[in-house]
Specification:
about 140 residues, alpha+beta, Arc Repressor Mutant, subunit A, three-stranded antiparallel sheet, 3 strands, about 65% helix, about 15% strand, globular
């Protein structure tokens, strides 16, 4: 068999993903968020109100695994959870204004870190990379 013309996508993306997680961790710590808490806050930006089960599915988390995360975010008044008036067995989840502010501040700081990582790329390459990455990310959903 001839040698592959390039590394596999996972072989290229995994080290980048690990680097991004390492860059995000201190930012999340400064904002008092775990990675899962940040994922929840980001997920609630896509849809303003979710059921807990729909939120878990949207962020690809086990619905039982995010309950302690939701409990913490609710205790800190970053989200609200209330029974659905149409089905009281189901909880609806949404961001509070404080949760939205924290999400925006955290995302701003993370994207500043990402900008530094991408700064050495020519602007056209950076724009193309981000556009294609967004397209691939949307397809993966």
């Amino acid at each position: 068999m001839p040698k592959a013309p390039r590394p596999d996508l996972a072989a290229m993306l995994l080290p980048l993903g690990r680097t991004l997680v390492d860059l995000e961790r201190p930012v999340l710590d400064r904002h008092g968020l775990s990675m899962w808490a940040y994922v929840v806050l980001l997920g609630l930006d896509v849809e303003p109100v979710y059921t807990q089960a729909a939120l878990a599915k949207a962020i690809r988390a086990d619905k039982t695994r995010i309950i302690p995360v939701l409990d913490d975010l609710q205790r800190r008044e970053l989200i609200r959870r209330e029974p659905d008036p149409a089905d009281r067995r189901v909880n609806l989840v949404w961001l509070t204004p404080a949760g939205a502010r924290l999400r925006e501040a955290t995302q701003h700081d993370i994207q500043e870190q990402e900008a530094r990582l991408l700064a050495d790329l020519p602007a056209t390459d950076r724009d193309t990379f981000l556009r294609v990455l967004r397209q691939l990310s949307e397809r993966a959903r």
